[in-house]
């Protein structure tokens, strides 16, 4: 079952990303759906799971604190990437074109987003492996829950990379990394046991990461210079889809 879970996680992520690449001409709609999916994963999957896993070790206030820490840490990372151009001497040229500056910084933001999504996918794999360490039944339930949003993870990876870098080849490379990440997570659990207390905290931190990516990056970009009704509808559809599939997976 572990091998099948790893294979399905890889395929679900890859198919989601390929779909986003296929319809990149309507990227604002993909971004709108992706924004809702990212926020939906945080609210309907990561936060409840973090509370469920961490409640026997921490108070709900502590879990909420780590969600806030994750949000603020990602904010600092994002701002650092945006300001990193100073290290390349760009600040020595005050007349530098703003469009060039944005193009210089954006790929780094895309890589940051892609790496974060890939680490989250690695944690998905860890969750599956840990579930199977407890029992086959729990492992299957966790695997189903993970697979339901791995498809959206692939869409999110392509969306973040294309939005920032406009480079389809770079986006596809990160899609492969994100697709392989859950396999590596599953394999890692064959060599060590991850404490549930640690997993709960990590899920809370990544919930904060996802809330920042969705609210501060994807939602504003999906609305920029595009009809707001349709992009808003896609955002609601993304969040609603994740709500439905997460709850169906929990049945």
Word description of this protein:
The protein starts with a helix and ends with a helix. It contains eight helices and no strands. With 251 residues, it is an all-alpha fold. It has one domain. It has helices at 2-22, 27-54, 60-83, 98-134, 136-165, 168-188, 196-223, 228-249. The model is unreliable at 84-104 (pLDDT under 50). Helix 2 (27-54) packs antiparallel against helix 5.
What is this entry, summarized?
The protein is mainly α. The chain has one domain.
Intertermini distance: 20 Å
Q: Looking at the chains present, what oligomeric state does this protein adopt?
A: single chain
Helix content: over 70%
The helix-strand sequence is HHHHHHHH
The major beta sheet can be summarized as: none
Individual helix count: 8
Radius of gyration: 18 Å
Contiguous uncertain segments of 5+ residues: 84-104
Instruction: Describe the global form.
Output: globular
Query: What is the total domain count?
Result: 1
Structural class by sheet pairing and helices: mainly alpha
């Amino acid at each position: 079952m572990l091998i099948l879970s790893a294979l399905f996680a890889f395929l679900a992520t890859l198919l989601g990303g390929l779909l986003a690449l296929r319809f990149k001409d309507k990227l604002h709609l993909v971004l709108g759906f992706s924004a809702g999916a990212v926020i939906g994963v945080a609210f309907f999957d990561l936060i409840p799971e973090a509370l469920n896993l961490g409640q026997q070790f921490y108070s709900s206030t502590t879990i909420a604190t780590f969600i806030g820490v994750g949000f603020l840490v990602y904010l600092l990372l994002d701002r650092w990437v945006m300001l990193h151009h100073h290290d390349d001497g760009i600040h020595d040229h005050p007349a530098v074109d703003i469009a060039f500056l944005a193009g210089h910084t954006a790929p780094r933001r895309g890589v940051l987003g892609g790496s974060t999504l890939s680490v989250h996918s690695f944690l998905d794999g860890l969750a599956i492996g840990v579930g199977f360490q407890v029992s086959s039944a729990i492992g299957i339930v966790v695997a189903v829950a993970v697979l339901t949003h791995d498809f959206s993870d692939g869409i999110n990876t392509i969306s973040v990379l294309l939005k920032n870098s406009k480079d389809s080849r770079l986006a596809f490379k990160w899609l492969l990394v994100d697709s392989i990440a859950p396999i590596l997570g599953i394999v890692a659990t064959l060599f060590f046991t991850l404490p549930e207390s640690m997993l709960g905290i990590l899920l809370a931190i990544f919930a904060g990461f996802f809330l920042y990516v969705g609210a501060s990056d994807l939602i504003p970009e999906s609305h920029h210079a595009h009809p707001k009704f349709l992009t808003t509808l896609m955002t609601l559809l993304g969040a609603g889809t994740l709500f439905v599939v997460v709850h169906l997976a929990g049945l």
